[in-house]
From TrEMBL:
Species of provenance: Novosphingobium kunmingense
Protein's recorded name: Putative lactoylglutathione lyase
Keywords: Lyase
GO molecular function: lyase activity
Domain named VOC: residues: 1-122
Length: 123
């Protein structure tokens, strides 16, 4: 089981504004914060997400093929998360809508550093 996902950033303040807005929509907030690292989630809850400046001091880069998926409560929340992402410096990677068969509804976007995210609901 994954406890949290960490994504690199070159501008922690910008990442904080982006993820604060996403977390607020999901009913959570910051659970840990240091000078170079912020984590969002609920202690004892589901998987959290963190933004960090790389420990080695080098520039943060995007992992090709890496994506963090955020489980929404319904399709309307997927739509809201997508809009919040774009309104807070994110970019489009696939507008909200059904994907394939089986009730998978998702939206794809990138954070301001280029990290790929997905908001989804099953069923």
């Amino acid at each position: 089981m994954i406890g949290y996902v960490t994504l690199g950033t070159n501008d922690l303040a910008r990442a904080a504004a982006f993820y604060d807005a996403i977390a607020a929509e999901m009913g959570t907030g910051r659970m840990m914060e240091f000078d170079t690292f912020i984590a969002w989630g609920t202690p004892g809850g589901g998987c959290g997400i963190a933004a960090t400046k790389p420990f080695d001091g080098a520039e943060a880069t995007v992992g090709n093929g890496v994506m963090a998926a955020l489980e929404a409560k319904d399709a309307e929340q997927v739509d809201r998360l997508y809009r919040i992402a774009l309104d807070n410096g994110g970019s489009d990677e696939g507008a909200p809508g059904p994907r394939g068969d089986g009730g998978f509804y998702a939206a794809y976007f990138r954070d301001p550093d280029g990290n790929k995210l997905n908001a989804f609901v099953m069923g």
